[in-house]
Design a protein that fits this description.
The protein is mainly beta. The chain has one domain: Sandwich (Immunoglobulin-like). It has one helix spanning about 5-20; strands spanning about 25, 30-35, 45-55, 60-65, 70-80, 80-90, 90-95, 100, 105-110, 120-130, 135-140. The strands form 2 sheets. Strands 1, 2, 3, 5, 6, 8 and 9 form a 7-stranded antiparallel β-sheet that branches. The longest helix has 16 residues, at about 5-20. The termini are far apart. The protein binds copper (II) ion. Copper (II) ion (CU) binds near residues 74 and 109.
Length: about 140
C-alpha cells in the first residue's frame, strides 16, 4: 500500500497542473482560482474573485488592473433586508489563513472596467504593505 502512495501523489499533481490555472506563488501569498466577471455590454463595473492563502502575515493595501480605472477591496454587509457593498481599506491575513473572494461575498471591485473587445484575460496586481507586488493573470468570464 505504501508503495502506491508516491504514484498517487504524482498523478494528483499531474491532474492539478493539467486542469487548474497555475497559482501565483509568492513567499508571502498564494493566489488561486481567480476569475473576473464578464459584465453585460456597456457596463463599466465588474468584479474579480479569487482565493488567497497566506504563508506569512500579509496586509494587502491596494490592487490595480490595466483595464480598470480603480480597484477596491469590497465586502458585503447586511443593512436591514439588503446586502450592500462596503469598501475595505485593506485586507489582512494571518499566517496560514485562506480568504475566499466569491460572488455574494468579498470581492475586488473593478471600476471603469474597459478591456479591449475580445480580451480573455486580464492582469490584476495586488500590493502588500511590505511592498510585495503580486501580478495575477485572471480569465475573464465565469469558470
Ligand atoms: Cu463591490
Amino acid at each position: 500500500m505504501l508503495r502506491l502512495t508516491p504514484w498517487l501523489f504524482a498523478l494528483a499533481l499531474l491532474g492539478l497542473s493539467a486542469c487548474a490555472p497555475a497559482p501565483t506563488d509568492g513567499p508571502d501569498l498564494v493566489a488561486e482560482a481567480g476569475w473576473i466577471r464578464q459584465p453585460p455590454p456597456g457596463q463599466r463595473r465588474s468584479a474579480a474573485y479569487l482565493t488567497l492563502k497566506a504563508r506569512t502575515a500579509v496586509t494587502l493595501v491596494a490592487a490595480e488592473s490595466p483595464y480598470a480605472e480603480r480597484v477596491e477591496f469590497h465586502t458585503m454587509v447586511k443593512e436591514g433586508e439588503l446586502m450592500r457593498m462596503r469598501p475595505l481599506p485593506n485586507v489582512t491575513l494571518k499566517p496560514g489563513e485562506a480568504r475566499v473572494f466569491a460572488p455574494g461575498g468579498d470581492h475586488l471591485m473593478l471600476f471603469g472596467w474597459a478591456p479591449p473587445p475580445g480580451t480573455t484575460t486580464a492582469e490584476v496586481h495586488l500590493l502588500t504593505e511590505a511592498g510585495t507586488r503580486h501580478t495575477l493573470t485572471l480569465p475573464i468570464g465565469e469558470p
